[in-house]
Amino acid sequence: MSENLAGHVKFDNVGLRYGTDPEVLSNLSFTLYPGSFYFLTGASGAGKTSLLKMLYLAQAPSRGAIRMFGQDLVTMPRSRLPELRRHLGVVFQNFRLVPYLTAFDNVALPLRLAGTEEKKVQRAVGDMLEWVGLAHRAHAVPPTMSGGEQQRVAIARAVIARPRMLIADEPTGNVDPDMALKLLRLFEALNNRVGTTVVVATHDVHLLKKVPDSLIMRLHKGQLSDPTGALRYPPKPGGSSAP
Amino acid sequence: MSSLPPLPAEAEEGEPALERPKGRAAARLLPPQRLTGPIPWMIAILIALVVIAAAGGLALRNLSNAASSSLSSAVSVQVIEPNPDLRADRTAAAVKVLTGLPGVTAVRTVPEAELVAMLEPWLGAGASSGDVPIPALIDVELAESAGPAEVARIAEAVKAQVPGSRVDAQGDFLVPVNDALVAVQWLVFAVAVMVALATAAAVWLAAKNAFVAARDTVEIMHLLGASDRQIAAVFLRDVLREAVLGAALGAGIGVAAVWLLGQQFAALGSGMVSGGVLTLTDWLVIGAVPLAGVLLAGLTARITIALALKDML
User: Fold this and answer.
1) Same domain, B64 and B189
2) Domain that holds residue B215
3) How far apart are the CA of B211 and the nearest CA of chain A, in angstroms?
4) What is the ipTM, given to two decimal places?
5) CB atoms within 10 A of CB A2
6) Which one, A72, A113, B90, B219, has the greatest CB density within 10 A?
7) Residue A166: what pLDDT?
């Protein structure tokens, strides 16, 4: 079993508690391999969002160790977090678009924060909005957009900088089945063509069948189970399924 | 949504450079004009107060220095003798003694008419009637400062030849006035420090409130890869813009007030007041007040935002 150590994400006996409450996540040990497509499932309250928060570096673990792209998150200085975060694309459950920025400026944020030349930002964001079918809404602000439109802006923002890992929290929760399928195809395209590791949290079991090569991690009361061997095996070369 | 669009060049090349957003890009990161409200006006008022206080303090210092320097090397000799003829003789003898003393550069007998004019406001017509004996007064200029030893040496020499004479350093008359002026200067300094603290507190509150209001956006920016430095720079940009606006306004009001006060005092035509005229250096110091205000506002905002960001992951 060969591992791309620089590209993987490894949780080792990780636990998370908020304040003095009991742990919401316990004993999480798994590895996410580069270029894989993972579904994170579980009932509401199982801890999916908490796990995703740790993955997109919004929450530090209460115990255990996390390695991401060769970095030890526990010992890494806080000043290096921005650099690591720029390798991540996140689609938040409630989109978290900046309400006073236009769709264009929301999508441009990751590139502008990375110091990309404005001329290139203009071209890349224009192309990206075209890609998600929102070129005509480039100057609209989120409060004037539908849920589906906001979701596509959030996705465009998440993928504009070609992240090494895309994390999506219930990305199809606010869209109709056709749009949900389109979004999944978009994630697959990113996974297949750019090699981005994709982690999608969903409680919609129908979605799981739409991406045949995906791996499934299941959370139940803060503990992980492993119905597809996602946590034990790296994906096959050229695909993303476990043996 | 079938195929991914081309990548921006930086993303293709790997690690993008950590740069601070500039110009329009920076303006698009946080809500525009977040600090609008009373802050520029507060800074303007505080800067105006410091400018007026600083100008007052510097004018008082100049006044004190001018008075001290003109009197520090001067000595007054009084010849106290009721008999006018005898007084004239003794005055002439004192002038002779003083002229011969080493270190004395000028000796001038103050004319009686000048003395009468000086005393008339207190003595009324009696000053010129001759009923009230007025001592003769001799102004003596020394090459060096009239210290106690120098005054004692002159007094000994004069008294040996002119009984009933009295020698005083003119600077001694100004000691209480100087003490009062120094106290006022300290008061001005204390006012400037308090106003600086008030400015810092106002900017601290404004920056903290602005940060709290934009906290959700800041969190999103953090998660998208913004560094603390980038976020602080965007806040700082707004704070500095408002501080510059307020400081310019305050400096304008303060300088105008100082100029008007200067005109009022100049109209008095008093020789003492003319010693308090502000020099070019003084104006440079006054000009530094708004700059210091802007720097203080910027520093306060930077510290406030840095502390707030430290609490976030």
Assistant:
1) yes
2) 26-68+175-310
3) 15
4) 0.84
5) 7
6) A113
7) 93
